[in-house]
Amino acid sequence: MEALNLRLFDWLNAPAHASRLTLDLAYALAIYAIYLVPLLMIVGWLQRDPVHQRLALRGLVACVAALGVNSVIGLVWSHPRPFMLPVGHTYLTHAADSSFPSDHMTVITAAAVTLLLSRELRPLGVIFAAIGLGIAWSRIYLGVHFPLDMLGALAISGTVALLAARGETYYMPALHRLARGIHRRLLAPLISRGWLPR
């Protein structure tokens, strides 16, 4: 399995003299695309529709829980990043911590699966899944992850997002009330002016 991982990495990793345009695209995907997830959650939460609010909360639960699983895996089994071996070419500075599974891929996949499970927002889920593929490629291309890091993240976050959807009836009412209370207290000045929904 490790031999296949290295072979796929060698195929996807950037060459010694990568083009500036390709590197810029990879940087945009590897560094900035992930911010679409919290932006989506904030926009979803600020909708007056309780369905969108619950979906935003479910996505948050899936992301946090999946990242928790990643942390446990990283503590139990530490897998070196490509530049720690060293193999390939590295174009992105990163801490020398465990590479498996990818946190970036975990977050974008949790969001994408949450959206894909929603009938009305499924097209947006497809878009986020495509962005996830771009993030996976970019972080391998720039030399900070292996392909199996991405597949591991996909499996973990996909499973957690499915569990978050199935168990929603157990945790959502209390979580929704808590989130509404925090929303009202923290954003009271903006709510009173009518700039945000109650």
UniProtKB/TrEMBL annotation:
Keyword Transferase: no
Reaction(s) the record says it catalyses: di-trans,octa-cis-undecaprenyl diphosphate + H2O = di-trans,octa-cis-undecaprenyl phosphate + phosphate + H(+)
Recorded superkingdom: Bacteria
Pfam families associated with the record: PAP2 (PF01569)
Domain Phosphatidic acid phosphatase type 2/haloperoxidase: 53-165
Annotated signal peptide: none
Protein name: undecaprenyl-diphosphate phosphatase
Organism lineage: Bacteria, Pseudomonadati, Pseudomonadota, Gammaproteobacteria, Oceanospirillales
